[in-house]
Amino acid sequence: MNSSRSNFYVSPGNYLGLLGGGQLGRMFCHSAQSLGYKVVVLDPDPDCPSGMVADYHIAASYNDVNALEKLSKLCRSVTIEFENIPCNSLEILSKDCIVTPSAHAVSVAQNRIKEKEFIQSQGVEVAPYKSIYNEKDITENMEYLLPGIIKVSKMGYDGKGQAIVSSLDEAREIYYKFGEVPCILEKNLSINYEASVVLARDFSGNSVFFPISINIHNKGILSSSFVRKDIDSSIYSHEKERMIRKAKKIADSLNYHGVLCVEFFVLNNNTIIVNEIAPRPHNSGHYTIDACFESQFDQQVRVMTGLPLGSTELLTSALMLNILGDSWFDTDSGVLREPNWHDILSLSGVKLHLYGKKEARPLRKMGHLTVLGDNINLLEDKARIVATKLDLSFW
Ligand code: ADP
Ligand code: MG
């Protein structure tokens, strides 16, 4: 049911299907429900963040044929919030449902080797890399990639399944440590800044692009995203159009349907390369909930229901700060305690989003904050206050 469906429409009141139960799914539920849709989530974890807010939660594995059948009976349109959903399940669902994005697009995004090959095949530059399928692939002809980063080809996220190596011996060691699964060795680049394009593409091939955010990472995890309304373009005017062109090329050539994030590295010599793509809304697009006419999750609902794409216009400058489980531990004593939300929420223009996760663990994404306002100095001051209160020491 997936391809060439440019004129379907699923009206509010109906169920929408969601594979994956994380925070992205929880925010998808909020958008879908506010338009009057019901959401059925498939995720094995009975306590997952989207299961708590969905209208119906099927707590079963993504491969469970009965669960997939139940899902396809309940809804005409299904999407994902997690790229490691088995593509076979998406294929099965696509017999009876509209599936966005397609199994093919997801299969490219969930495998770093396939992803890089695909991006390069579109004439878009990626970081220098070589694939490792077995230890014999780790040879002197990889030395030019050192110091480099070994990344597992599948299932890595938030810097997990990655390690910096400075010699081939170290590369071998890490390859064994990662369980001898397919990996890439990628050159560790000196990056001027990181940015991302979040776009939505519909079944007629129309795309809309959110304002590009500048992203700061710490330990491989996104820590903040900044989008400025005032002099937005002065930061990267000449790079902006190039990034959008590359993102569009990737989305068009995948015949992509849904929300896609393209992560970029801008190097010191202004070379723009694509780091990776995410076939779903993205952490760097969370600011769109509070700062844009329609959020990235609203757009996800629109594509999968056949509604027209919404406006991506930015209403105000925004700085998004991720809140990790570390903020639950007192810096001096290490004792677990709830952060002081009262003080944070006393600041105007600061929007808190918590994901309802039961257990705070270091480096676990627990929520995010968006600091809004057109006075950049004030906005940055507020962000600094919030960061201090949450012990976000890297801010
Ligand atoms: P993940 O799937 O965990 O997001 P990424 O490949 O996006 O993995 O890496 C996470 C972060 O690590 C990037 O956003 C960037 O900050 C840093 N990083 C990744 N690859 C490189 C590289 N080749 N050179 C320098 N920094 C990198
Ligand atoms: Mg990434």
TrEMBL record:
One of its GO terms (molecular function) is metal ion binding. It is an enzyme of class 6 (ligase). Its EC number is 6.3.4.18. It catalyses: 5-amino-1-(5-phospho-beta-D-ribosyl)imidazole + hydrogencarbonate + ATP = 5-carboxyamino-1-(5-phospho-D-ribosyl)imidazole + ADP + phosphate + 2 H(+). One of its GO terms (biological process) is 'de novo' IMP biosynthetic process. InterPro entries: ATP-grasp, ATP-grasp_carboxylate-amine, ATP_grasp_subdomain_1, PreATP-grasp_dom_sf, PurK, PurK_C, PurT/PurK_preATP-grasp, Rudment_hybrid_motif. ATP binds at residues 112, 151, 156-162, 186-189, 194, 217, 275-276. Keywords: ATP-binding, Ligase, Nucleotide-binding, Purine biosynthesis. One of its GO terms (cellular component) is cytosol. Pathway: Purine metabolism; IMP biosynthesis via de novo pathway; 5-amino-1-(5-phospho-D-ribosyl)imidazole-4-carboxylate from 5-amino-1-(5-phospho-D-ribosyl)imidazole (N5-CAIR route): step 1/2. It comes from the Bacteria. It holds the Pfam family RS_preATP-grasp-like. Residues 116-305 form the ATP-grasp domain. Catalyzes the ATP-dependent conversion of 5-aminoimidazole ribonucleotide (AIR) and HCO(3)- to N5-carboxyaminoimidazole ribonucleotide (N5-CAIR). Homodimer. HAMAP family: PurK (MF_01928). Belongs to the PurK/PurT family. This is N5-carboxyaminoimidazole ribonucleotide synthase. It comes from Candidatus Kinetoplastidibacterium galati TCC219. The gene is purK.
